[in-house]
Design goal:
- The chain is an all-alpha fold and 187 residues long.
- The protein folds into 2 domains: 82 residues, Rna Polymerase Sigma Factor, Chain: A; 88 residues, Arc Repressor Mutant, subunit A.
- 71% of the residues lie in helices and 0% in strands.
- The chain has 8 helices and no strands.
- It starts with 5 loop residues before the first helix and ends with a helix.
- This is RNA polymerase subunit sigma-70.
- It comes from Echinicola strongylocentroti.
């Protein structure tokens, strides 16, 4: 069986051949798991997604003709991940989210961070001017509240008020957009 192509094994699976199914499982499980885990960042969910893909393959094999099995598997995993993300009740614990980690720096991030960084940048630009200035000085440039207060000729308490208002505004905006960003990134 190890010498059979994926498509040949699939034809045997269509005839309810358990050994062929096990061979396909062994060939694809690790790569599909890694793909799902990369998107979900949750071991248990990734395992469930891959298991569901294989269950559907087995159940639907007699009535489905698949030409490119590898492509089918990865599309099926992507679809299942999208379902998990859509169906999951997302609740963000904003106390654990560090906006400093996702703010634009001098060197742009790669991958999905670029999208999130653009969204955060847009939301920061919508802050009131003084609030935005205080936020940038604190989060992007690393100035303390005292340093910002001295530079802008305002009290440290006013600086803290601007920072709290900025963070509250950003957290409210981003909490609503987070699910959409995740779905967009992984579809």
């Amino acid at each position: 069986m190890k010498l059979h192509s994926d498509e040949q094994l699939y034809q045997k699976v269509r005839q309810a051949d358990h050994e062929a199914f096990d061979q396909l499982f062994d060939r694809f499980w690790k790569r599909l798991f890694e793909y799902a885990f990369k998107m979900l960042q949750d071991r248990e969910q990734a395992e469930d997604v891959v298991q569901e893909v294989f269950v559907q393959l087995w159940e639907n094999a007699p009535k489905r003709e698949i030409q490119h099995l590898s492509g089918y598997f990865f599309r099926a995993v992507k679809y299942q991940v999208a379902n998990v993300i859509r169906n999951q009740k997302w609740h963000l614990d904003w106390n654990t989210v560090q906006l400093e980690d996702i703010l634009v720096t001098d060197e742009p991030e790669v991958g999905h961070n670029v999208v999130l960084l653009k969204v955060v940048e847009e939301r920061i630009e919508q802050l009131p001017p003084k609030c935005r200035e205080v936020f940038y000085l604190s989060k992007k440039h690393g100035y303390t509240a005292k340093e910002i207060a001295a530079n802008l000729n305002i009290s440290p308490r006013t600086v803290e008020g601007h920072l709290q208002r900025a963070l509250k505004s950003l957290k409210a905006d981003l909490e609503h957009m987070y699910i959409l960003v995740l779905i967009f990134l992984y579809l």
